[in-house]
Amino acid sequence: MKTKLQWFAAILTVTLAFTSNVFSQNGSTDPTIPGPFAVSSAIYDYGDTALTFQGFPGPVEFRGSVHYPTDLSGPPHPLIVLLHGRHSVCYNGTNLGGFVWPCTNGDQPIPSFQGYDYLAQNLASYGYIVISISADGINAVDASVNDAGAEARAELIQQHLNLWNQFNTTGAAPFGTLFVGKVDMTRVGTMGHSRGGEGVVKSFLLNQSLGSPYGIRAVFSLAPIDFNGFVPTRIAFGVLLPYCDGDVDTLEGIHYYDSARYAVPGDPTPKHAFLVMGADHNFYNTVWTPGEFPAGASDDWGAASDPYCGTGPGNQRLTPDQEQKTGLALIAAFMRTYVGGEHQFLPVLVGASQFPVAPATIHTSYQAPDSSAVREDVNRLTSATNLTTSTLGTPVNESGLTPYSVCGGVGETVPCVNGLQLGQQPHNDGLAAPGFLSQLITGWGSQATYTYSLPIGKRLVKLYQALQFRAAVNFADPRNSSLAVQDLTVTLTDGNGRSASINVNKAAPGKLFFPPGATGPVPRIFLNTVRIPLSSFASINLSDVRTIQFKFDRTAAGGLMITDIAFASPPVF
Amino acid sequence: MKLTFRVRSAIATRATAILFAALLSCASAAAFQRPDSPIAEEQQQRVKILNPDSLSGVNLLRLPGRLLSESELRPPAGQLRLRVYRIEELDLPGSVDATIDGARVQLNQAYRITVFGGPFQVRNAPLMVWIDGKFAGMAQESSDLKSASAVTFDRSLLRNGATVALSYGPRSSESYSESPEKIQFTLKK
């Protein structure tokens, strides 16, 4: 006879299965396709000066938009919160108004919060309630507070969550009882752009410090700044870095991924980073995009002459529509997975397949949760010790690699590569000392090898989907041919002495690309995950793998940065 | 559909409660910051305020100041087109306990550095003031975006012949621009 606990677990499982699949679009893997539900929208507005935050030197508006499925029947709907970044705050016709809040002299507020309507519309069509909140009052004076407004942005999000909790429980003007019982405050996802990207990380920490009254399950930072060094642990986290970002041109948002990935032993949550080639900072917000709003919009990339990011012939810049499609694809897939519980986007989120956003190219980095069920770290390369001893505790053998050293870790005062412009080493660039991501800096001038042995108890690699490592072509190393893709051979050997080899450029085409651009912060050394499906090694016994060898035999010479060597699988939930 | 509704008192009450709880939890929140967090390190490079509550409610950017130095109007210089700097001394409402380079001090003045030029873009990357290449403060833009001001407590930065500069982000940014004139204290301090 089943115990009460067993019955409860069974009921809970059924309930979760129902709610997690209720908005699924029959398994389609293109998140940009509109969903099946009709969408309604509204703006709620309590005034330009409705909010004040202790220690913040100015009033803040309490205003936002909501996109929601017109038919709100059925189970409560997950809530997505969008927060824009720093931008001019007032306008008058086609001119910028005064940079002061509230607006004066007949100027009108710039509605930056409406710049993500394309995203809100899409998610609402899949059953989500999506709010986008206005933060002009914060933007106007956040340079005068030490944390650049991070606390104020977190407080603002919390105020909106409180408000929506009220809409969900007792109802309130302007919506009356429209949303009562319709908002699932246990399934919340947040997305912030630029300073908003730091704001949503801080918001998660604030909510946590308050005892987690709201179930924030996923945080996505779009081209964020990193002023305060917050670390997003124990939360599904994603960050988008636009390669041609001319505002936050340091791409310092990668620090969130780098600092979180080993910060908490047993962290059960995944981390994702997405490098979008050809994207700038502003086009993700339609109000900041030239031609889509009459004042204050601009292309933030400044060096028009750059052959890749500039505006000259042959440039590889994405149009605003193309760029917004990448944002839509990434954020929608991320939220529908980690808030909505859908599974069909996991292959693109972990880099096993490509997002359907051609002609754009997205390079994905994925850190699996810290569980032996989905991740086994072969070598974290977090210190010089890892040059000779792997994270698994076994000897590391190298031959012919030069240099062969670890650089760039926390506390390092010397950058991995000297003499580069700001922004060319995002993992090590920022407002503080150059150390953030420790990585192997190495190269070869003739055939070289780099070999790991797996100890007893760690040889059953068929549990995992892929062997992966993060890598970047070191453009400053003259052994790399300009604009040529690098390559190497990876070989696994089993206990019977059988080997299987794959060249990286076949398993993960184009991942070891020579970074493009020539001006200012480009080209960049940006480490992306190189993912090799273990199905590539199907001819050997993957239950008893003894060695992993990286053989640099595909090109005559080269130089790479390498870190985070691991076996990994998508997260399980 | 746009509707307006005022709930200021209820929100303020709720906000106060939440902020109080947030302040109490600052210690635990700090555990989620890297010890070498970027802006913290820059801000604390020279000066650490030990009793920030003493400055609660004080807007240092708007306090009346005594003019210590101001350059003449020059042609625009650098990517940020700087033309003029101004340095003012501010009397603090009360003594502030601080350390400068680790040495404990009591401060009664602060110094506001304003640079004129631009017009500056409202960006997400911080606008930062530098004196002789040392970080002096994050700058707040004026309403017309033609000036930006930062406040420093470190008087030792402000010496005759020092260079005043502005950049978006770190000093190594391509936007780093120096004021055409170096600091000259020709007025009685």
Largest sheet of chain A: 9 strands, mixed
Low-confidence stretches of chain A: 1-22
Bin the strand percentage of chain B: 35-45%
Secondary structure class of chain A reads alpha+beta
Largest sheet of chain B: 6 strands, antiparallel
Quote the distance from N terminus to C terminus of chain A: 28 Å
Major sheet strand order of chain A: 1-2-7-3-8-9-10-11-12
Radius of gyration of chain B: 19 Å
Termini separation of chain B (Å)?
58 Å
What's the total count of β strands of chain A? Answer: 23
Helix content of chain B: 10-25%
Low-confidence stretches of chain B: 1-31, 35-44
The rough form of chain A would be described as: globular
Mean pLDDT of chain B: 79
Report on the architecture of this protein:
Chain A is built from nine helices and 23 strands. By secondary structure, chain A is α+β, with helices and mostly antiparallel strands. The longest helix of chain A is centred in the first third of the chain and has 20 residues, at 150-169. Chain A is globular. In chain B, strands 2, 3, 4, 5, 8 and 9 form a six-stranded antiparallel sheet that branches. A four-stranded antiparallel sheet of chain B has the order 7-6-10-11, with no helix packed on it. In chain B, a hairpin with a 2-residue loop joins strand 6 (127-131) and strand 7. The radius of gyration of chain B is 19 Å and the shape is globular. Chain B is built from three helices and eleven strands, in the order E-H-H-H-E-E-E-E-E-E-E-E-E-E. The longest helix of chain B has 17 residues, at 8-24.
